[in-house]
Design brief:
It is a single chain. This protein has about 230 residues and is mainly β. The protein has a single domain, classed as Pnp Oxidase, Chain A (Roll). The protein is built from four helices and 14 strands. Strand 4 (about 50-55) and strand 5 form a beta hairpin. The longest helix has 9 residues, at about 65-75. The chain is globular, with a radius of gyration of 20 Å.
Length: about 230
């Protein structure tokens, strides 16, 4: 048999135990999602359920939240990505909702209605270029996008029946501050300069230093565009 390595948890006397966590946030990127309602009023909401594939973002949102309602009604959003420096702005929107009246379940957990989320977060809205929702001026990365499709989760047949939605958002434009651009490349972000804000089981974290180069880095980034 092969030798035991330091990666073997059992070699260190650690046994795996089955558990049933209420949430599975083992580490995901934090964003503020901006959307607009049917009257054009903007909403801004923290989100840490997002992943990327090609030029598509997959968002997880509550169907009955103001964000979920706005996405169903208008199909547009901006994913505003903060660095770790934006943590206070994100946290100011915790326990707030654009819904009025506040749903009973959220009210019992301490949520309150806020009409002007930008003012509450202490940030400024600026116009997007391809969609109606505004961007967050103070955040270093903005991804504008339109809904491609909305998947009801939990085995329900339609979004109207679902509690949670998986939203496929086709990205239509990306904005970044100049300091994040990789020298010598028009369309690349320098990963050594980008310090995204992360959510880990209801707590904020940043990224540590690079552990080692990935072998994937031998492939030019433009290869993925096609």
């Amino acid at each position: 048999m092969g030798t035991v390595t330091s990666l073997d948890a059992h070699a260190h006397g650690t046994r795996h135990a089955p558990i049933s966590p209420a949430i599975l946030y083992f580490g995901s990127q934090v964003s503020l999602l901006s959307t607009v309602d049917e009257e054009g009023h903007p909403n801004l909401a923290p989100n840490s359920s997002v992943w990327w594939l090609g030029q598509t973002a997959m968002l997880g949102v509550a169907a009955r939240s103001q964000t979920g309602r706005n996405l169903l009604a208008n199909g547009e959003a901006v994913i505003n990505l903060p660095s770790i420096a934006g943590v206070d702005a994100v946290d100011r929107l915790a326990l707030t909702t654009g819904r009025s009246p506040v749903p009973d379940r959220k009210a019992a957990a301490g949520y309150r209605h806020v009409r002007d989320k930008f003012a509450e977060a202490g940030v400024r809205p600026i116009a997007a270029e391809t969609v109606a929702p505004p961007r967050v001026a103070e955040f270093p990365v903005h991804l504008e996008g339109r809904v491609v499709t909305i998947h009801p989760m939990g085995g329900t047949a339609t979004p109207a029946e679902a509690s949670l939605l998986a939203v496929e958002l086709g990205i239509t434009r990306v904005h970044v501050v100049e300091s994040l651009r990789m020298p010598g490349h028009a369309n690349r972000i320098d990963p050594g300069r980008w310090r995204p804000l992360m959510m880990n089981f209801q707590r904020f974290f940043g990224l540590g230093d690079e552990t080692m180069p990935s072998r994937l880095a031998s492939i030019d980034e433009e290869w993925y565009r096609g």
